[in-house]
Amino acid sequence: MADYDFDLFVIGAGSGGVRAARLAALSGAKVAVAEEYRVGGTCVIRGCVPKKFMVYASEVSSQLKTAKGYGWTVGEASFDWKSFLHDKDVEIARLSGIYVTNLQKAGAHLLHGKARLLDTHTVEVEGKDAGRYTARKILIATGGRPVKPDFPGADLGITSDEAFHLPTLPKRVLVVGGGYIAVEFAGIFNGLGVETTLLYRGANILRGFDDDVRSHLADELEKRGIKVVLGCSHQSIEQTEAGLVSTLSNDLTFETDVVMFATGREPYVEGLGLDTVGVELNERGAIAVNGQSRTSVESIWAVGDVTDRINLTPVAIREGAAFAQTEFYNNPTAFDHDLVASAVFSQPPVGVVGLSEAEARHAFGKVDIYRSIFRPMKVTFYGGQDRCLIKLVVKQDDQKVVGVHVVGPDSPEIIQMAAIAVKMGVTKAQWDSTCAVHPTLAEELVTMREKYVPAEVGGAG
Ligand code: FAD
């Protein structure tokens, strides 16, 4: 049998790579992990974690308003962007350090540098730990990266990567895109007092989500002061003395200090040497893998965003874990990508598991819809106008709950629990037999008895 430097070489120390490397190393395997930037990957360094800190920071402005509504006298409040960024970076460095420690404790070797494949068992690292390393198995976990659109002046815009390090908080921002990162950052900037416009070329934000969620959230964003411009895109951006001037597809011009593109991400495969070794890509430019994350090359696997299955941290972690179980614990495991719950940390946030109404109608024909839109008691107290949306999609023939959609405070926390029941195949009757927790927003989920009949469906069920 050939002699290799390592049993496993992992390229990329993000969510998927770190989990796979740690588990494999804990089995006694000799493992190396190469990282070209910072250990922790997108999630820890420039994704979920810093974003959530920014959401927390920006939510304080509405909490101050709530405080007034509940009788508090709140003095002049101000926000210090620089001090927040500093503290955020200190915390991110601490978390990244924990990832490094955990890798080391498991016995994995961390190599700093950019890795590329030389052949099916050899990786070359360029950078601090430059060298050529051979491995019996190679795992690609290089993640994704943001893409900017291609039009004159697009280079003047930033992406989420730079939004985490803006030297000053702008007065005006134009966030371009309709996906979850766009609506989250629009909420962040708006909450921090930045005049915020969300520009999206499609008919409504959050494509792929339930239509009620999409329209409800767009309304709620506007109520909170975000200007939502739909069906419109960029022609160009120019730098002028007054700021960045965007010329839009309707020929109107729009002046801001920062344009942030959240217009999509692509699998990060550049410079990996995939064609040299014959690792095939799919039609979306992602590494093509089977259910056990195997690529077209026998000794090479891929997990996480680089495979563009469901691009979320817990999914990358589970895919990495399943790979390690299969290859290093003799326990063949495939991660089940069905019914993965997700959240949008917009303001208000969204929590979703399962199918949208349209997807369910397409898949099953007949569905029952239960829907409630209401002002939560916390805001009715002071006359606030925020509204929550709760919606259940139920398959008509067997009464299984196939979709749960919540827009409102704590919906990401609520949906995590709802997902357990949906994953277990709960029926509407079982769901309803669960006694409410009172007074909560979530109790509305188990107290919806009357079917909602959308006008256009007209009782067809
Ligand atoms: P990554 O975490 O991206 O890690 C890949 C690593 O590989 C990186 O560290 C990179 O530097 C390194 N690398 C790449 N190429 C090489 C090379 N050739 N050599 C060496 N190293 C290399 N997901 C959620 O679940 N919840 C959220 O709230 C959420 N919010 C997000 C917010 C933003 C702004 C973004 C951008 C993403 C967010 N995500 C969220 C998605 C989540 O971050 C990703 O799904 C997750 O990080 C994917 O993990 P991964 O292991 O595939 O890749």
In short:
By secondary structure, this protein is an alpha/beta fold. The protein is built from 13 helices and 21 strands.
Give me some keywords for this one.
single chain, 461 residues, alpha/beta, FAD/NAD(P)-binding domain, Enolase-like, domain 1, 3 domains, seven-stranded mixed β-sheet, five-stranded antiparallel β-sheet, 13 helices, 31% helix, 24% strand, globular, binds flavin-adenine dinucleotide
> What is the overall number of helices?
13
Question: What number of structural domains do the residues give?
Answer: 3
Reading off the top of the CATH hierarchy, the class of the largest domain is best stated as Alpha Beta
CATH overall fold name of the largest domain:
FAD/NAD(P)-binding domain
Strand content: 15-25%
Uncertain segments: none
Main structural class: alpha/beta
Question: What percent of residues adopt helix (DSSP H or I)?
Answer: 25-40%
- Which small-molecule ligands are present, each listed once? flavin-adenine dinucleotide
Alpha-carbon Rg, integer: 24 Å
Number of strands: 21
What average pLDDT do the residues reach? 96
* Known CATH architecture of the largest domain: 3-Layer(bba) Sandwich
Q: Give the terminus-to-terminus CA distance.
A: 63 Å
CATH H level of the largest domain: which superfamily?
FAD/NAD(P)-binding domain
Overall 3D geometry?
globular
- Main sheet, how many strands, which sense, barrel? 7 strands, mixed
